[in-house]
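Service request form, structural biology core

Requester: graduate student, group of Dr. S.
Request type: structure prediction, single chain
Budget code: on file
Notes: please return the result as C-alpha cells.

Sequence provided:
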Amino acid sequence: MGHRWTKSLMLFRRALSEALLESDEKILINSTPIRAVDLENVRSKYYATCVAEGDSAEVKRKTREKRFFRAVTSAQHQNLIGVRVEPSGRTLIWLATRDTNA
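Core staff response, request fulfilled:
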C-alpha cells in the first residue's frame, strides 16, 4: 500500500485532480460515494500540458498517447487510482485510498 506519486506521475496527478474538481460524477465503491471522472476528460487535461518532442503533430500525438497510457497503467498498478470500465466502454477513474481500491 505504501506507494507514492513519483515525479514521472506528477503531470498525470495534476491532470486527474483538475478533471476531478470539474466532475460532478460519483460512484459507489464499498458503499462509499467517491468522486470519479471519465478517463477521456483526464486525457484532455494531460495532453494540454504535456510537452512532446517530434517533427510532426502526429509524432507528438503518439508520444503523448504513450506517456498517458504509461502513467495510467503505472498509477493503477501502484494502487494510486481506482479504475472501473462500464458496460458502455466508458472508463471512470478516481484517486484511490486504502478503502477505495475497487
